[in-house]
Design a protein that fits this description.
329 residues; alpha/beta; five-stranded parallel β-sheet; 5 strands; elongated
Length: 329
């Protein structure tokens, strides 16, 4: 393989190297390559492979010429965990990549498996950075870029309000930006974000979540019914429930400290640390597990896995509220 580095814009480069630990960005790197391959050939064969599926000899079989000369995309996840013999085979392949085959190597970075990283870079692989976002400023930059990518204008105050409301999960931030873009015309400002995520207390999806994690089932159900009647999307409510329960789990397992210190450690704004501390009373590790399962079931229910999204949400709210009271007499 030539040592000339592939262009970042060349999605069909023989090798794409996605480096980092941010799952959303890694998944996007894969989707972009697959979409480009299928645009070139609708019958592209995509193989998404975990390390245990890439035992010695597997690469040779996967890259052998096809009778129909079909295009292939081979996705190698967690490449840092590949066995030494397989890494050796991949290094050899990099020198003579097969035509019509695009190799996508996902690597966490760091010292483990660094030899493969170095070999791919030396071979001129197209590289995509997928770093974990750990700072609020990085998440703010991500939100701004999301709106630009979606072709929409959002004020700085709106972007900050979204980060403050959602927290550190990039998938949820991306989902919220997409939801606002789909539902709102014109420039997205702080008032719009407030309507969706912190607006009128009785209609907010976060109010449903707050009442549920506080063990106040009746009030949570009342807020849920009002939210649905005023047009709040069910997926926003499951997202808020998930964030509420995850925040309880994160803070309950974190070491003690000042809100500012915990905020940096957990990726939450300081005001949210204080709120979650108040909501934690009554929660147990078993309760958190039960609540997370309930959220997962509700999420499947509102995304087409069930016949009645409203019932799925009601069931989740009641289960979460009961889980919040497991330690109480």
């Amino acid at each position: 393989m030539a040592t000339k580095k592939s262009s970042p814009d060349d999605l069909l480069a023989p090798v794409t190297l996605a480096v980092g630990q941010e799952d959303l960005l890694l998944d996007r790197a894969v989707r972009e390559v697959v979409a480009a391959a299928r645009a070139a050939d609708a019958d592209t064969d995509v193989r998404d492979l975990a390390p245990e599926q890439l035992q010695p000899g597997a690469l040779a079989e996967l890259t052998s010429p096809s009778l129909f000369a079909e295009r292939k995309v081979l996705v190698m996840r967690n490449a840092q965990d590949l066995p030494a013999d397989t890494i050796k085979e991949i290094k050899a392949y990099l020198d003579h990549p097969a035509e019509e085959i695009t190799l996508v190597v996902l690597h966490a970075g760091g010292a483990k498996g660094k030899g493969l990283l170095d070999a791919a870079r030396k071979a001129g692989a197209r590289e995509v950075a997928c770093p974990k976002t750990t700072k609020p400023a990085e998440r703010l930059t991500f939100v701004r870029q999301e709106f630009r990518t979606l072709g929409r204008s959002a004020t700085p105050e709106a972007c900050q309000a979204l980060v403050d409301a959602i927290g550190s999960d990039l998938r949820e931030l991306a989902s919220a930006a997409a939801q606002l873009t789909a539902d709102v015309d014109g420039t997205i400002d702080e008032a719009v974000v407030g309507r969706y995520y912190t607006g009128r207390a009785e209609a907010s999806s976060f109010t449903v979540a707050d009442r549920a994690v506080e063990g106040r089932a009746a009030e949570a159900l009342e807020a849920l019914r009002w939210s649905l009647s005023t047009g709040v999307a069910p997926v926003l409510i499951t997202s808020a429930l998930a964030q509420g329960v995850r925040a309880i789990g994160k803070l309950s397992s974190a070491r003690g400290g000042r809100p500012a210190d915990l905020a940096r450690e957990l990726g939450m704004p300081p005001w949210k640390i204080d709120r979650v501390r108040q909501q934690m009373r009554g929660w147990t590790p078993d309760g958190v597990s039960i609540a997370l399962r309930a959220v997962a079931e509700a999420d499947a229910g509102v995304k087409g896995g069930g016949d009645d999204p409203e019932y799925a949400l009601e069931k989740a709210v009641v289960t979460i509220a009961r889980a919040a009271r497991m330690r109480r007499p």
